[in-house]
Amino acid sequence: MSKERLFYGSYEAKNQLDHPGRQRSGAVGTVLPGRAGLGTSSASAEDVVFFPMGGIVLSLYPREKLAEDATVDPQGSGFSGITLAYDTRSKEEVDEVLKTVEGLGAVVVKKAQDVFWGGYSGYFADPDGHLWEVAWNPFFHFDEADNLVLP
Fold first, then answer.
1. Phi/psi at 88 (nearest 5 deg)?
2. What is the pLDDT along the chain (151 residues), one digit of tens a residue?
3. What is d(CA 102, CA 15) in angstroms, rounded to the nearest whole number?
4. Which of 85, 96, 127, 133 is the least buried, fewest Cβ under 10 Å from its Cβ?
């Protein structure tokens, strides 16, 4: 495994994007004070917004859909509405990471599988109960410093 490549997903911030009359940059300025006008990636779609942040990416996605993808109850006490994601360079690396973290005490809550958006991912809960997605996205690439580069 190489250095960490993280996404942060948040329901609360995504809901701000959905309110009538709010512009994306204003909503993100609320979430990230002082960062109003933060540009979005062309990889953003109707239900997901990606904000490149110098090697990491802030990703906003609705709580219910995030819970469904992770195969957990959106209202359950074990789901905070936020997941972290580790992006890999291959499907094989997804499997390797999940096997490694399971051996270290994490609980795999969704085995890796091909997913609706064209990638391959699975989820695990770390010892503190935080959900992590381990994903390979064929549409995202890495630079020579191993930073995630969005379109």
1. -115, 170
2. 444 444 444 333 344 444 332 333 333 333 333 334 467 888 888 888 888 877 778 888 888 888 888 888 887 666 777 888 889 999 999 999 999 999 988 999 999 999 999 999 999 998 878 889 999 999 998 888 888 888 8
3. 33
4. 127
Task: Name residue 52's amino acid.
Answer: P
| CATH code for the structural domain at 6-149 | 3.10.180.10
User: Where along the chain do its domains lie?
Assistant: 6-149
User: Going by DSSP bridges, is the β-strand pair 6-10/57-60 parallel, antiparallel, or unpaired?
Assistant: parallel
Lookup: tokens for 103: 């051996």
Q: 140 by DSSP, 3-state: which?
A: coil
Q: Report the distance separating Cα 60 and Cα 144, nearest Å.
A: 26
124 CB neighbour count, 10 Å cutoff: 23
44 C-beta neighbours (distance < 10 Å), count:
16
Q: Phi then psi for 30, rounded to 5 degrees?
A: -70, -40
Q: How far apart are CA 129 and CA 52, in angstroms?
A: 27
Are the C-beta atoms of residues 27 and 13 closer than 8 Å to each other?
yes
Structure tokens belonging to residue 71: 């195969």
